Queue: 2 jobs
Job 1
Amino acid sequence: MPVADILHRGFLYTLVGISAWGIFSMGTVHMDTLRRGRGAGEHHALALQETDNSHDREQAEREVALAEAASHALSAKRS
């Protein structure tokens, strides 16, 4: 077998190996990115839920304060 043929085959096998490694690496990175994205999404959802809960509590406290103020205003008006 001529030397050029051996070199050519070696070069092509090297290119095929690099391509296969690249495709495997792309898949691995893609799956890792999806996994991290799911984790960040869950963390973000929990943070939003905590914010909503604290906002709901503050809103309820404001409503109670306004209702008490209205009640006091009505009782003061009647007196």
Job 2
Amino acid sequence: MSSTSSIENPTSPLDWLEGTLIVIKENLAIFQASEYSKVIELGKKYLARNQKTPEDFFDCLNEKNSQCLIDTFGQFILGCCHYTGFGTSEDQGKAFELYSKAVETGYSNAQYILGLCYANGKGTTKNLEKAFELYSKAAEAGDSSAQFNLALCYANGEGTTKILEKAFELYSKAAEAGDTSAQFNLALCYANGDGTMKNLEKAFELYSKAAEAGNLNAQYNLALCYANGDGTMKNLEKAFELYSKAAEAGHLNAQYNLAVYYANGKGTTKNLEKAFELYSKAAEAGHLNAQYNLAVYYANGDGTMKNLEKAFELYSKLAEVGHLNAQFNLAVYYANGKGTTKNLEKAFELYSKAAEAGDLNAQYNLALCYANGKGTTKNLVKAFKLYLKAAEAGYEDSQYNLAICYENGMGTTEDLAKALKLYLKAAKAGNTIAKSNLGLCLHSGNIFDMFF
């Protein structure tokens, strides 16, 4: 966006200072607070046209301030120079002091920025109540950025009591003024029924507005709407298009979801190489599920050359931060010497961790470790308890092994009736060995009599 200023070349030595201030002031009314950097760039361009530097601007403005020859807006801009290090060294304390002076005269932009200083402890002690007070004043004066931040205060109970209805009201005002972050948060309110009635169609409409204006989170959430048919007709091609746009701009979850779309041929042609590339990008940026899927790709040779060592390395990193599936897969690698040296004790340790966190595969494999004394001392009672736990949660292989325990009194009291019931369950689920054992049981008069 270009400047709206009508100022051209200055006619006197110091007209450039006034001209620069006008350029900044006019554009502050156009850009959102989050885009102040664009205003600074316009200021730099104007100064360059007049063969001046940011240092010239700061020195002249500072001198005029010391002579009491600049207005409230000039003090505010001088504070911005100190805050951002524009033409001088960064000094947040000095910036806070100048913002405070500008606030005394009721300048709403200064009220908002001073509120940010209190909220983040910049140049002063952090004080959420004071930040709330200043946001309130600036919001009342119509500052959309202040309205947005005030809404956040009400939404999160920061510096005031949590009131979702009030947050909704303020998001609405800021959204109407074109604040894309407010439009996005207002969409979330409608999507989740926070402070208003749930309305997926309205959420979709607001995501669309903010997405069109370039808001990455809105583009991502709009893709989710199309993917799930929330507030609009389900459209995987449109979801793919939006994920692509947000992913290209660096949105982490969009990169991951786009990889999933390529992996499964959703909304586009299946392309494992492209999926691998996107999982790699997201994984490098710290996306845990992308790191896991990337490990699986290396393990199976999907979209890349098979590399068990690389898969092992990725599973190891994820296991350290508590990723359940990674802990289980890493245990399997240690148990079978895949991508690393075989280590049954390490496998047992990892199965234990994953089992404790509720992973059924891990509970079953841990039971096998106890049953066969692999990586630990043989303990049929513990094996039985783990088979029981996994079986009760519906794990079919565990139901079969539990039947064997009851039939043979392994780790528990012999109970042929229970064994038969479990063989039946496992057989119905397609376990061929269970079917064979069931046949043997039904030919045993003892078991038949006990069951019927």
